[in-house]
TrEMBL record:
Protein name: Glycosyl hydrolase
Entry annotated with the keyword RNA-binding: no
Keyword Glycosyltransferase: no
Domain Glycoside hydrolase family stretches: 43-345
Source organism (scientific name): Pseudomonas taetrolens
Source species, domain of life: Bacteria
Similarity-based family: Belongs to the glycosyl hydrolase 5 (cellulase A) family.
Pfam families in the record: Cellulase
Signal peptide residue numbers: 1-21
GO terms (BP aspect): cellulose catabolic process
Length: 401
């Protein structure tokens, strides 16, 4: 009986949400703060309610770690897309229902597309086929057409993030964090090839708009969504309902897990290897670096509420992680950009799960992964999580329901 009442309550919430659903671009008119969900198991209602309970308004949801019907979730196989996998789609829709019941908006974010299988699902090999052969552009456009047709009326969906962290530049001799002039020279050479990321996005967006004229589209910058990688884009994309996203882990040498194992780890603030040089990284440099996409937006008359920091974070066990998070979030407070921290209660890698504090996880965490069981480790607000928790709790009243 209790289960019947719970199901009925969920159905009522979804019905009411459908009745109130409006133009979803309006959701992005004021700063929205949330988290990333890159879990191996589809998140439960409790999971979404916990994130909402902190004050989050949205979640960037990736499904590529979930158990697929065939080789690749939803795609069937990234080698040749022929249609959505119905069992996978049902799993995704049920997960969206739970997010909606918790009061969270969702940005649907694939890690793989046809011709671009996510590296961790590909034997740790970078898959560059999408950026070599436009046949995969056509397949990606068809995939997104099918997915948009299936999801366009779901009230939880706040945007389609076309692909996570594309890197068409990686195998085409453009150094990461190259100068803007070098980036523009590179783009001029590759503008007529499959490495033209803005052209790829425009093709996919045109396909989506044939079946869904309303849902906003989120696009990551190139070079793994680097904050300086919009520099070579000649202008905005053709569609007006587009959100432009960057990710913030710089200086990566200091914020990432390998730093723990260095004989002398980099410290933050401090001098850190970046773009081939030792540079002083502190709050001022974080602000300067994150100003790059803002300046690009201003140049092209893009409102700041169409810019997103879709991911940011640092390895939680590093002694400087809390200070880094505080500095990044202080800059985001000032610029009023949308953001989503990486990550919330990840059940396959603990490195940026800030509720775990700074200690190692117990062996039960890894046993659950091996047995494909739910993560058994309890979470709580910790010191390293405090900069995020405080901002989520203090979100602007206009962002709350």
């Amino acid at each position: 009986m209790l289960r019947t009442l719970q199901v009925s309550a969920l159905a009522l919430m979804l019905l009411n949400s459908n009745a109130l659903a409006g133009e979803t671009i309006d959701f992005w008119n004021t700063p929205q703060h949330g988290g990333n969900s890159f879990n191996r198991l589809p998140p439960s209602l409790d999971y979404f309610q916990a994130l909402k309970g902190y004050g989050a308004t949205w979640v960037r949801l990736s499904y590529d770690k979930w158990q697929p019907q065939q080789r690749d979730f939803l795609l069937g196989t990234a080698d040749r897309y022929t249609g959505l996998m119905p069992a996978d789609l049902a799993t995704l829709k049920a997960t969206l229902d739970r997010a909606q019941a918790a009061g969270l908006k969702v940005v649907v974010t694939p890690l793989s597309l046809p011709g671009m299988r996510w590296r961790q699902n590909n034997g740790d090999r970078f898959d560059d086929r999408l950026w070599q052969d436009k046949t995969y552009w056509d397949q990606s456009a068809q995939f997104w057409t099918d997915l948009a047709r299936a999801l366009k009326d779901h009230p939880a969906v706040a945007a389609y993030n076309l692909v996570n962290e594309p890197a068409p530049e990686r195998q085409a001799r453009l150094p990461e964090h190259a100068s803007p002039a070098a980036m523009r020279t590179w783009y001029a050479r590759h503008q007529q090839t499959a490495r033209n990321l803005p052209a790829f996005y425009n093709q996919v967006i045109r396909a989506i708009r044939r079946v869904d004229s309303r849902t906003p589209i989120m696009v990551d910058a190139g070079w793994y969504a680097a904050a300086d990688a919009f520099a070579y884009w000649p202008g905005l994309l053709d569609d007006t309902h587009v959100l432009y996203s960057v990710h913030m882990y710089e200086p990566y040498a200091a914020t990432s897990a390998p730093n723990i194992n260095r004989p002398i780890p980099y410290r933050y603030p401090g001098r850190v290897e970046f773009a081939g040089k030792q540079r002083l990284w502190n709050k001022a440099r974080v602000a300067s670096y994150l100003q790059v996409p803002v300046q690009w937006a201003e140049k092209h008359r893009l409102p700041v509420n169409r810019l997103v920091v879709g991911e940011f974070g640092c390895m939680r066990r590093l002694p400087d992680c809390r200070q880094y998070l505080e500095d990044v979030l202080s800059v985001l407070d000032e610029t009023r950009l949308h953001w989503a921290f990486y990550s919330f209660r990840e059940d396959t890698w603990d490195g940026m799960d800030y509720e775990l504090g700074t200690a190692k996880v117990p062996w039960a965490y890894w046993e659950a992964i091996e047995r494909r069981q739910p993560d058994p480790v309890p979470r709580r607000a910790t010191g390293v999580f405090e900069p995020i928790r405080a901002r989520l709790a203090a979100r602007p009243a206009s962002s709350a329901e």
